[in-house]
Every structure is written in structure tokens, then in C-alpha cells.
Specification:
By secondary structure, the protein is mostly helical. The chain contains 4 helices and no strands. Helix 2 runs parallel beside helix 4. The longest helix has 68 residues. The radius of gyration is 31 Å and the shape is rod-shaped.
């Protein structure tokens, strides 16, 4: 502090102003960095996560419809309803492929989902057809 006591009032005021400018510059740099990070995050949410969530939500509805159609086909004994299941399964598979295209980081997860879903559809279709045919 002895350094400031030996300076003239003019340099003391300049020192205070310089400290304010440095503080403002540091605050501005921090805010700019935070804003840039928020922009990147919001772009990911807007371009990747939200469309992915939208497709996956629609797939939940499709999966429920597939289960309902299998039940209805077995109860009514009509193979015509199984064609609707096939259409729903194709739409679900296409939506999963779109999710994979949107977010390449999730490719392995989507591929495993497609494998599991295909196995489910094959087993459920075979079981439903055998129940309809009463074999």
C-alpha cells in the first residue's frame, strides 16, 4: 500500500479506473465463454436431442399399438391385423434409423434396439400366427 501513498492523486484515479476496466474485461470474458457454451448446448438440444426424443416418443406409441394389434389379431383370429403390425413395425424401424442418423454417438445403442425389436417381432408374429391357426 505504500506504493499508492507515494503516487499523485491523478495516478491513483488512473489505477482505480484500470482496476475497473480489468475487472469488467474479466467479467465480459467469463460471460462470453458461458454464452458460447450455452449456444452449443442449445444447438445440440434443438438439432439432436429434441428430434430424437420426438421420434422415440412416437415409437413408444407405435410399440403399444403393435402389442394391441397382436392381442386383437389373436382374440379375433384374423391374420389381416398382422399386416397392420408389419406396417407399424416398419415405421418404428425407420424412426429408429432416423435417430441413428441424427446422433451417430448412439449408433451402437440403436443397432442393439433394432436387433432386439426384430427378434421381438419375429417371435410375436410366429406366436400370433400359431395361435390364430390353432397349432
Amino acid at each position: 500500500m505504500s506504493l499508492l501513498s507515494n503516487l499523485s492523486i491523478r495516478f491513483k484515479i488512473f489505477t482505480i479506473v484500470a482496476g475497473g476496466i480489468i475487472g469488467l474485461t474479466v467479467t465480459l470474458a467469463f460471460n462470453y465463454s458461458a454464452t458460447s457454451n450455452n449456444k452449443i448446448t442449445l444447438e445440440k438440444v434443438s438439432n439432436i436431442y429434441f428430434p430424437t426424443l420426438k421420434r422415440l416418443d412416437a415409437n413408444l406409441v407405435r410399440l403399444d399399438k403393435i402389442k394391441e394389434h397382436y392381442s386383437a389379431a389373436v382374440i379375433a383370429g384374423e391374420e389381416d391385423l398382422l399386416a397392420e403390425v408389419s406396417a407399424q413395425a416398419s415405421a418404428l424401424t425407420e424412426a429408429l434409423n432416423e435417430v441413428s442418423a441424427l446422433d451417430s454417438k448412439e449408433q451402437a445403442v440403436v443397432d442393439q434396439l433394432l436387433i432386439d425389436f426384430t427378434a421381438y417381432i419375429q417371435a410375436a408374429d410366429a406366436l400370433s400366427r400359431s395361435m390364430i391357426d390353432e397349432t
